[in-house]
């Protein structure tokens, strides 16, 4: 290895996330909210291409995709300032969109030329328009960072102050970054279903079950914030704790499979202090259905004599790398050969995640997790894995397709970008999703592959 | 003496300055032809003079509302980023590379269509952070160049400028020059920052400019008498079928090309393209500065266009006699099937929404199929192309051959205007070539054909290929009607009740209610 390669480069090949201004898609995930992109032409087409198209072709909705207002800065704006262009864009958006909340996201260009966006948006706020602004320059961070910035902006400028009572049993669900994981919509539904089943009133802020911006107005009334992710959303929960004196429960592991999900429910119920009768009833019912199916599956698992994978590699963001590795290693008994986390996890969360993979995945299983965003290095790491038992399984992105073919591996996409997969409504988490995850893995194995 | 292209500078003059490109206009195609004054502009491009007032600025409708769109940097990625043995470094924050996966998929498709081995794109982002905005990113760029060489051992390394790096004043020209001796391959700066030009197609010119300056052989030792340059994207290799009878091999530029294929462009016998918008710059430069003539003919769409184009190509290779036999036999060959399609599409109306010259070609094909076009939407209008050939006025050619288009709109990917555009005319389907619009139009009950393989409509067979595909597209109306019944676009009732797509531009009092509320 040369000197250059030894020194960890900051450059990136084969990118696996968008930049902060791609958080326009966080706004699209809120019913009735309209993102106003204050950036150059190309910014939204590119980031949205990665998040909604080249990502299971999940698509966009409402004021997302081609419908998204964008200032498309010109040379004139760069030289003379872009405020007039943005002012026109805001007026036009208010004029023709059906919107309950407008969020102005400023990208690199607006930030660098120093346009006073807060001042401009303030004019509309004073006049009573539901509009907020967020600083989401691409050089400040990726779309996960941008997501957290947008959430705080909506809380501070739209939800506002609150001094009323908290409602026991009402939870704000802080989960994944919308449009980032290919299954996010289905996963939100499954997690909300599980929490409701356990007896909670779940305030769903994004996705198919988000009722609209009124859910955001309800945030301060919740008993607590539930953050289900190794790190995304923790910053927002800390902010809410300060702002509304609202506690939060942080569970890094997205539960996959009966045992993990049951443990998850009990942990949340215990923390909330609500009556356990309903949750235990729900667990009993879900577990019975789960094992009804798992027993059927066990016949294939035992009898299929044409071969199936036993070793796997995962490359994904922290949340799903952890959730899927745990399920496969702990519940199915697949052997993890390498886990690579590619989402630029903030440094302060890395030790806990590393420790989790080392000692908490499953009895007798310990993984040295890698944090690597550069696709070239990710590929090198996978290339270096020596698979010893049967056909390997590679769970990753479309960047790994060529390598997987070379390795003769079973391959399917679980993280961004994904261009070999079409997703309409799917989940691989909780009780129901875990069984779908099994279907997907072993469908890739059957039929002489 | 024609001197249409200046290769001395690393930068390219924008299309709006070079060609007078506009992105907002609404009227009939005939009116636009008159206002464009192509012939006068063409004379000027060829070094002549028609006196004062020639080629004045076209009137342009400005829109206060714009929407998600493409940029020149993205175009450079889709061109240079799809070369097989050269690396593209995007000197930018990471978001500028977030379409890379899509261009990777496109390249895989393109390689398959051209029968080349599969590979991933060779891409690097300098991944600039906030501190780089303050202290500069030159060191990172040097590191990226060394890494590019180390990782991919490329034949050339390109550096793409982005908005952030253009604003902070990154000197990519100096870094390229300084590093070239060290890495031993051409390092080519591309000034393609997104805000630079109001239309993304300037990005094509920037990409061509880079390869013309630093890759295309300046002093070709030999001529390849049977090689013709086709300025293309990733389309299926139908040009070979079309040109084989004239004894020609095709050299596709730039997507999926290798360094060597670009280098040999100056050895070819001529240059032509599927789209004057795309190919004009490269064709004109190869003619002016490398002595490779461009084919001065209508584009190869529809029967008349393909005839004329083939004759012009045949003239260059001295096959005037053979081409007549070829044309006659092709007419005979496609006639029965074409008659069938004309019967099938009787009474149908279509609408094309693409870049400008390509739209003109597509509309010709629809007209051949007996489909009426009452309206069209182009994302930009170039009153003249860089080639500026006598026979390259594609809009005039279209209108003279197939008649006027009463509602001819120029507007850059403004999806919010679709309800009004579709309200004005009868349309059974749309053909769209740009992301973002087809899904929006699909909500309005009309099926859409996202034309990805740009070579589908070329030549005689292209007419039949389009006909065949459109049968399937029309059948999909059922899906779009279902969507229309249940799903609404994000615009309010007031907007849906409007009839003018440029209402926000044309009505000076349109924001009065908001301004009053703001106390303005």
Helix-strand blueprint:
The complex is a heterodimer of chains A (449) and B (520).
Chain A lengths: L2 H4 L17 H5 L4 E6 L4 H11 L21 H6 L2 H14 L4 E6 L1 H6 L3 H10 L4 E5 L7 H17 L7 E8 L9 H14 L3 E4 L9 H4 L4 E7 L5 H11 L3 E4 L6 H15 L3 H28 L7 E6 L1 H15 L2 E7 L8 H10 L10 E2 L3 H9 L8 E5 L4 H7 L2 E4 L16 H14 L6
Parallel strand pairs in A: 1-2, 2-3, 4-5, 4-6, 6-7, 8-9, 8-11, 9-10, 11-12
Chain B lengths: L14 H4 L5 E4 L1 H8 L1 H8 L26 H8 L6 E6 L8 H14 L9 E3 L4 H6 L2 H15 L3 E6 L1 H5 L4 H12 L3 E4 L11 H13 L12 E6 L5 H6 L5 E6 L4 H5 L6 E4 L2 H15 L11 H15 L3 H25 L4 E6 L1 H13 L3 E7 L15 H9 L4 E5 L6 H7 L4 E4 L5 H5 L5 E3 L8 H17 L1 H10 L6 H5 L5 H4 L5 H7 L2
Parallel strand pairs in B: 2-3, 2-4, 4-5, 6-7, 6-8, 9-10, 9-12, 10-11, 12-13
Antiparallel strand pairs in B: 1-11
What does this structure look like?
The complex is a heterodimer of chains A (449) and B (520). Chain A contains 18 helices and twelve strands. Chain A is globular and about 70 Å long. In chain A, helix 9 links the parallel strand 4 and strand 5. In chain A, helix 8 runs parallel beside helix 11 (234-244) and helix 9 (184-197) packs antiparallel against helix 18 (430-443). With 449 residues, chain A is of the alpha/beta class. Chain B is of the alpha/beta class and 520 residues long. Chain B has helices at 15-18, 29-36, 38-45, 72-79, 100-113, 130-135, 138-152, 163-167, 172-183, 202-214, 238-243, 259-263, 276-290, 302-316, 320-344, 356-368, 394-402, 418-424, 438-442, 459-475, 477-486, 493-497, 503-506, 512-518, and strands at residues 24-27, 86-91, 123-125, 156-161, 187-190, 227-232, 249-254, 270-273, 349-354, 372-378, 407-411, 429-432, 448-450. Chain B has a six-stranded mixed sheet. In chain B, helix 19 links the parallel strand 12 and strand 13. In chain B, helix 7 packs parallel to helix 9 (172-183). Chain B is globular, with a radius of gyration of 23 Å. The N and C termini of chain B lie far apart (55 Å). The model of chain B has no long low-confidence stretch (mean pLDDT 95). At the A-B interface, helix 3, helix 4, helix 5 and helix 6 of A face helix 4, helix 5, strand 3, helix 6 and helix 7 of B.
């Amino acid at each position: 290895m040369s000197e250059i390669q030894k020194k960890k480069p900051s450059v990136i090949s084969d990118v696996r996330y968008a930049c902060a201004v791609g958080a326009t898609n966080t706004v699209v995930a809120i019913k009735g909210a309209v993102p106003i992109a204050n950036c150059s032409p190309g910014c939204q087409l590119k980031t949205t291409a990665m998040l909604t198209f080249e990502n299971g072709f999940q698509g966009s909705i409402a004021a997302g995709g081609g419908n998204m207002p964008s200032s498309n800065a010109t040379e004139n704006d760069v030289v003379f300032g872009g405020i007039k262009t943005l002012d026109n864009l805001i007026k036009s958006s208010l004029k023709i969109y059906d919107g309950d909340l407008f969020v102005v996201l400023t990208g690199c260009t607006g930030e660098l030329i120093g346009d006073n966006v807060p001042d401009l948006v303030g004019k509309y706020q004073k006049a009573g328009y539901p509009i907020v602004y967020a600083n989401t320059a691409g050089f400040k961070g990726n779309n996960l960072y941008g997501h957290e910035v947008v959430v705080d902006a909506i809380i501070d400028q739209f939800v506002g102050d609150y001094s009323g009572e908290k409602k026991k049993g009402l939870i704000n669900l802080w989960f994944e970054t919308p449009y980032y994981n290919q299954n996010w919509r289905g996963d939100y539904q499954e997690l909300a279903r599980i929490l409701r089943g356990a007896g909670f009133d779940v305030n769903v802020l994004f996705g198919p079950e988000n009722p609209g911006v009124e859910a955001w107005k309800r945030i301060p009334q919740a008993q607590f914030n539930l953050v289900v992710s190794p790190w995304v959303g923790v910053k927002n929960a800390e902010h809410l704790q300060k702002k509304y004196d609202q506690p939060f429960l942080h569970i890094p592991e997205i539960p996959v499979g009966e045992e993990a999900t049951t443990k998850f429910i009990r942990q949340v119920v215990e923390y909330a202090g609500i009556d356990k009768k309903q949750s235990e009833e729900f667990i009993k019912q879900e577990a019975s259905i789960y094992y009804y199916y798992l027993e059927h599956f066990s016949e294939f698992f035992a009898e299929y004599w044409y071969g199936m994978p036993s070793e796997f590699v995962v490359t994904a963001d922290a949340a799903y790398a952890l959730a899927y590795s745990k399920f496969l290693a702990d519940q199915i008994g697949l052997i993890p050969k390498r886990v690579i986390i590619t989402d630029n996890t903030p440094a302060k969360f890395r030790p806990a995640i590393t420790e989790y993979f080392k000692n908490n995945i499953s009895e007798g299983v310990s993984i040295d997790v890698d944090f690597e965003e550069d696709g070239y290095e990710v590929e090198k790491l996978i290339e270096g894995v020596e698979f010893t038992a049967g056909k390997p399984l590679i769970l990753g992105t479309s960047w790994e397709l060529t390598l997987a073919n070379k390795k003769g591996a079973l391959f399917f996409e679980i993280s961004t970008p994904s261009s070999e997969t079409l997703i309409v409504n799917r989940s691989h988490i909780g009780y129901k999703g875990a069984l779908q995850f099994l279907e997907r893995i072993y469908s890739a194995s059957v039929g002489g592959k | 003496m024609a001197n249409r292209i200046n290769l001395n500078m690393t930068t390219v003059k924008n299309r709006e300055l070079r060609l007078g490109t506009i992105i907002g206009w609404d009227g009939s195609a005939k009116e636009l032809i008159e206002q464009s004054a192509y012939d006068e502009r063409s004379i000027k491009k060829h070094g002549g003079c028609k006196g004062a007032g020639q080629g004045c600025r076209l009137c342009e409708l400005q829109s206060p509302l714009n929407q998600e769109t493409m940029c020149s940097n993205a175009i450079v990625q889709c061109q240079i980023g799809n070369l097989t043995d050269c690396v593209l470094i995007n000197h930018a924050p990471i978001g500028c590379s977030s379409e890379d996966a899509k261009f990777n998929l496109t390249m895989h498709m393109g390689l398959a269509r051209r029968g080349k081995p599969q590979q991933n794109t060779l891409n690097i982002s300098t991944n600039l952070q906030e501190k780089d905005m303050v202290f500069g990113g030159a060191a990172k760029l040097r590191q990226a160049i060394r890494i590019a060489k180390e990782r991919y051992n490329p034949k050339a390394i390109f550096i793409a400028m982005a908005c952030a790096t253009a604003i902070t004043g990154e000197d990519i020209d100096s870094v390229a020059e300084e590093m070239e001796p060290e890495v031993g391959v051409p390092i080519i700066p591309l000034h393609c920052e997104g805000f630079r030009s109001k239309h993304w197609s300037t990005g094509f010119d920037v990409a061509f400019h880079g390869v013309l300056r630093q890759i295309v052989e300046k002093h070709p030792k030999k001529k390849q008498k049977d090689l013709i340059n086709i300025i293309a994207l990733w389309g299926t290799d139908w040009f070979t079928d079309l040109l084989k009878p004239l004894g020609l091999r095709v050299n596709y530029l730039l997507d999926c090309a290798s360094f060597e294929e670009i280098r040999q462009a100056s050895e070819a016998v001529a240059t032509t393209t599927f789209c004057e918008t795309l190919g004009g710059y490269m064709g004109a430069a190869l003619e002016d500065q490398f002595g490779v003539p461009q084919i001065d003919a209508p584009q190869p769409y529809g029967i008349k266009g393909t005839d004329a184009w083939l004759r012009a190509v045949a003239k260059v290779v001295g096959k005037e006699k053979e081409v007549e036999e070829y044309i006659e036999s092709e007419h005979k060959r496609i006639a029965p099937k074409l008659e069938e399609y004309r019967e099938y599409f009787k009474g149908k109306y279509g609408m094309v929404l693409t870049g400008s010259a390509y739209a003109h070609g597509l509309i010709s094909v629809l007209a051949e199929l007996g489909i009426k076009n009452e309206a069209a939407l182009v994302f930009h209008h170039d009153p003249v192309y860089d080639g500026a050939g006598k026979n390259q006025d594609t809009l005039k050619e279209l209108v003279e051959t197939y008649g006027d288009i009463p509602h001819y709109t120029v507007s850059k990917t403004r999806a919010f205007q679709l309800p009004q555009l579709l309200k004005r005319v009868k349309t059974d389907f749309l053909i769209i070539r740009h992301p973002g619009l087809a899904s929006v139009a699909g909500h309005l009950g009309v099926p859409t054909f996202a034309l990805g393989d740009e070579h589908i409509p070329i030549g005689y067979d292209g007419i039949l290929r389009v006909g065949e595909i459109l049968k399937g597209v029309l059948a999909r109306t059922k899906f779009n009607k279902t969507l229309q019944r249940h799903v609404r676009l994000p615009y309010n009732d007031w907007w849906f009740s409007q009839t003018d797509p440029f209402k926000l531009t044309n009505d000076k009092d349109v924001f009065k209610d908001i301004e009053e509320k703001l106390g303005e």
